[in-house]
Sequence to fold (811 residues):
Amino acid sequence: MDLTVIWAFIIAFAVFAYVVMDGFDLGIGILFPTIRVGQGRDRAMNSIAPVWDGNETWLVLGGGGLFAAFPLAYAVILPATYPLIIAMLLGLVFRGVAFEYRWRDPNHRAFWDAAFFGGSLVAAMAQGMTLGALLQGIEVVDRSYAGSWFDWLTPYTLLCGLGVVAGYALLGSTWLIWKLEAGAQKHARYLALRAAIATIVFMGAVSLHNIFLNAEYAERWLTAPEIYFAVPVPILTAIIALSMVQAIRKDRNSKPFWLSIALFFFGMAGLGVTMWPYVVPPGVTIWDAAAPEKSQVFMLVGVALTMPLIIGYTAWAYWVFRGKVADEGYH
Amino acid sequence: MFDQLDALLLARIQFAFTVSFHFFFPAFSIGLASYLAVLEGLWLKTGKQVYLDLFKYWLKIFAIAFAMGVVSGIVMSYQFGTNWSVFSDVAGPVIGPLMAYEVLTAFFLEAGFLGVMLFGMNKVGKKLHFTATLMVAIGTFVSAFWILSVNSWMQTPVGHVMGDNGQFLPGDSWWDIVFNPSFPYRLVHTVMAAYLTTAFVVGGVGAWHLLKDKANPHARKMFSMAMWMAALVTPLQIFAGDMHGLNTLEHQPAKVMAMEGHFESHPDGAPLILFGIPDSESKTVRYAIEIPKLSSLILKHDLNASMDGLDTIPDDEEPPVGMVFWSFRIMVGIGFAMLGIGLWSLYARGRKRLYDAPWLHRAAILMAPSGFAAVLAGWITTEVGRQPYVIYGLLRTADAASPLDAPAVAASLLAFIIVYFTVFGIGVWYILRLMSKTPYAGEVGVKRGDTGPIRTAGITPGPTQNPGHDEPLPAEKEDV
Fold:
């Protein structure tokens, strides 16, 4: 198989891992103001404190991997979405330090809780808008970004941003259903139901926009062979969405979380079909942007050796902190 | 044209600002992670409570420093693309894989085991917990390995070929790229600098508490350990720095000329300029205090060896002399001050007065932040000294920047400055507050709200176990 294609899948995997894993802890940040001050917020925070750092490392892998495997894409996308990337990074600064600071300074805990919320919201919104800016196309001339300042700011990118915010809120609330119990869990179910509906609406809107307002994307979806993939996707997505809503309402613990991950998986797979084979639509394919074979092989060895270990010890770290947060604290 | 120049300067300031701020945290956490591993190892080996107490005391500080390191580090991983897109495009095939290896072998290791290290002591058992601490410590070192390899390749690029599209492509051997000529020296020098930075912080904190109570066993232990580091590692570091300088002379002579303030060539023995004011306009060092022929002796091991000066370098390939000249002297000056503290501590130790030497303790407190200053000065020396190139001799900094307009870069720079100074300033304040608390028997580790059995675990060490201290109970003392 073509190494460039393998690398496209590796990057896609890193992005998916990031979106799901940091998605649920960003989502908890987004929902933070709705969670009661005191034990409620402390437990929500505790449920992610041991794992958030590992989750965010996937973002570095996504960025670093893109730099290494598709340097041209990295060199074009980041300047094109410059204000979004800077906003995301600063948002991540605020929410990242809030994990430590809120315990260190009880007098200003309300401020750090607000920073945790604001930082998470800004980061999620910026990520969604970056995705939107990529999907709507980036102008490239002579291996360099050639668009203007505010190309990234359109109704479509805002729609994508809100979609990601809703999606992260869904992941966060279903995670909380899993990790909390009693009244706090009930509140999480309440949030999850609303986040689920919002996510489904936004996913539908973005999909329709892609198909009906962009001739090239429409062609990709509505002709063979993609259409064979295109038809089952909405049906499967609908089935997943329905069973998720069921699981949220019923007394299920982990099932809503797993189903929301499945929902994200199909959403990303759909975006993959939409973009293929471009890494920077409309002009730069994965082969245009790919690093030379020597670089690809060198890194592939590293990925093959380390990725099983990384997945292994990450899973172990999650396993150590398994179970309801209230059952046992982290000491 | 003027706009371009402005945007370039702003982008350079932004990178210098974000990377300088970022490096403070790893400079501290590389050493502190190893120190924590040593403390936990000693606790497991000897069973002495004092090691566990110190481990938990410093773990709280580590948690904050590490969080700041993580978030400022994520910024760095995107700075290349946002502000140096041409560099990213052309150098990506060579340095991108090295940075990917850093993520795969270091960042995941640190992050994966950090949660267990911070919060998992009662969940996984002592040995497994120690393993987690070791993994975090190893991760910080591996991270330094890769990123310094990248930096060194940019200083002494070898092992690549040029592609038709202007990209630097990997040549026959990755080994040549990773272990480029300046890498071993830079790695040793930087990692020892991180250890010394941590040692002086730990020593300063120990000294602070010794001044308040010279009988405090925790303060004694950390001060003693830190002073051993100062006495043993500083001479090694000065030696490593000298070797690194010789390596630089071989590969980046213009940098050494700027460090030495040698505007002119000296065919029969160059003087060592101790102080003076370099004037790039008139190409002289004013008010120079110099020792004849000593520079030739240090750099070429021969009093009469001829040394080229900046007059042999075209003007548009010269680094800014003043900045390099001064930052180098600051670094070296601090290095020798550290050596002085180390020797002083040996003398005090020999007279069995290590814990009863108030002036040594005051000096150690004064020197507590010196490692950070030395590290920053050292990086300024090497990074400004390789200008005007970003890939030495091959790609000029001016040709490497993103096609961004000045206002965009100015706005982001301003945002970084405001956010970093407030957010990290507050973090440093929290760290200082933790350091000012006297370590006590039965230290509680990193604190997480009021869930679960945290309170009950914290009540056990009563005031009787802390004689002579008016410390409140840990459970009340800690932020809950």
Summary: Chain B touches chain A through 88 residues (CB under 8 Å).
